[in-house]
Give the backbone structure.
Amino acid sequence: MRFWRTLRERKVTVENSDNYGETVRVDELAQSLPDGAFTELQLNLNKSKTLWVATMEVEVSRLSGKRSLAIVMNQPTFSEATDIDYFLTNVEANIVTPLWVVETYSQRNWVEVFYREAKGWLGLKEYQVRHKRSLMRHFILVMCAYTFILWHQLTGGLRRRWATKPLKTFTETLEAFRSAISYRFVCWLQENMDVFLRYKASLGLIWA
């Protein structure tokens, strides 16, 4: 789904009552729709929110075929609305219901959360390869690491042994995991110092 908000002046072509294509700006189209074109929905997230949604098929220049356009407002009429969003998707029209639109878009915050944590803590953008296959391997490893940490956060696995406080966030859970790995490494190092010394020596380094 593509989100149009600042591009409300973009023009689309819709069929009029005579089945002829009429080209109009998106915001003008929203303003011309009758009140009955909008469906009232109650969206229950952290706070309950009432929205009014209208969907229709349109054609857009430079895009082949028809697209489904959704207009989402925070008031029942265009003149009253203070927050109006425009959505465009190439998903099949029979799937694009008002409820599907708002529920799908409401999940966008979790996508942004993933990118922030994966980039900031797991090195999603720290790749040093260019080949597509190598990039895919890097992304898969990051996804696996993210899923592993998130699973421990939700199940409390790390909390039971490696923390004395609740691990409520991804970052806190990751720190507990690092603490566990550090402890295991120190234990291994105490029993395998000679192995570690030889490894450092093979790199031309001295561990002392």
